[in-house]
Amino acid sequence: MTHDLVISNGTVVTPEHGTFEADVAADGETISAIAAPGTLSGETEIDATGKHVLPGAIDPHTHHGIYRGLEADAESESKSDLVGGVTTIGNYFRRAGAYEEIMPGYFDEAEPNYYHDYFFSLGLLSMEHVEEIPAIIEEFGITTFKWYMNYKDAAREKFGVDCDMHDDFGDAFIRKLAEQDVPTTLGYHSENVEITNALAGGNVYVTSESDDTDADADADEGYEVMVEEFPGYAETQSMVAGAALAKVHGYDDRFYAVHISAGGTADELAALHDAGYRAWGETCIHYLALTTEECDERMKVNPPVRSKADQETLWERLADGTISTIGTDHCANLAENKFGEGIRDSLLGFPSTPVMLPLILSEGVNEGRISLERAVEVTSTNAAKAFNCYPKKGTVRVGSDADLVVVDLDETKTVTPELLHSVSGYSPYEGRDVTGWPTQTVVKGELAYDDGEIVGTKGHGTHIDRPV
Ligand SMILES: [Zn+2]
């Protein structure tokens, strides 16, 4: 029979079944056959001779809609993601008010515009939000949430809610999640904000275009002030405290520390694992690919990019299984808005989803730090598991969604915003030579990126209602 699409003669990489030569066929949106090389035929055929076929990458940590509105980001960012082999993203969204009333409008903005699938994770900001958890799961298929320790004392002012986000709030939050019948996940922003606020001395870090900058902002300050005022130990201590609270409620297996930036945090997570905790750890690609010395306003983000020693520890902890997933904290802020007078006056966040997989292939696999199988686990399979969409996503097997990426491990390209089809007009990695790029990206059976060209369809992506 002729299949809708066949990727032939490639080396398929799966964490479950290892690495093997095969043809992979898709019919409709799902993988329909995996067979000996050269045995399947399709309406559309992609020759993957000499290349690897991986499950589409998943970026579980993005902030679409945070600066430009979701409609615009959904279209431009999901298109750009295809260049980097990303076929699913998780979008963190937070707003005061009843999510049952807010989300329908937000789905309306997302659904017609995504080139690939996506899921929402909701920041809970108030006790009312905690009470809404069962309805959010039931009505919207959203099972993943976030607790922001950095807004502990700022929730009233920043979000206009009538409670603080102190530990009593987190306690109620975790207990409510642990009560649910379906698997849920708690993303946790680790930061002891009493320490970071004291170190920052009341200096304002611009987090949105409407925030006022601090009058004392000094244009001569460099990136190091971010590292001094957001030290690694403030992240480490907070992560351990959060994991401990989850553990006492029997919820540590669904506790997920987002964007681990400090080597010390990864080491303490390993110690928790040794002590019987099952907590998840995520790092972001910038903590693996950059060091403080290389950074300027373009890389402004919280937590900040740290030292070479931190970076080396994160790679080791990624290789040894302590850190399970990689995200990006991607924000689509435009160059004209991002850059201010010096570090304090610049916007937080930057775009990087499309470079996530290429940088892991280049700096991880090609530099011998992790195996290709481990790269697939940390860029796809584990995120699917942590965010409750496995095995629909995150693997190459019959019946799973046909989200596939063909990569050439030997191809070197220099990063430019144009290469990434980026609307932001800058990349923190601009000018860097990266070896290991997708040549084709397939989204739910449809060829969506082909050798430099975006050929996918806007609206082909949809929200992944969980549990799957
Ligand atoms: Zn984030």
From TrEMBL:
Query: What are its cofactors?
Result: Zn(2+)
Q: Per its UniProt record, what InterPro entries does this chain match?
A: Amidohydro-rel, Metal-dep_hydrolase_composite, Metal_Hydrolase, Metallo-dep_Hydrolases_sf
Domain of life of the source: Archaea
GO cellular component entries: cytosol
Which GO molecular function, any one, fits this protein according to its record? hydrolase activity, acting on carbon-nitrogen (but not peptide) bonds, in cyclic amides
Q: Which Pfam families match?
A: Amidohydro_1
The Amidohydrolase-related domain, residue ranges: 263-447
Q: Which SUPFAM superfamilies match?
A: Composite domain of metallo-dependent hydrolases, Metallo-dependent hydrolases
> What is the name attached to this protein's record?
D-hydantoinase
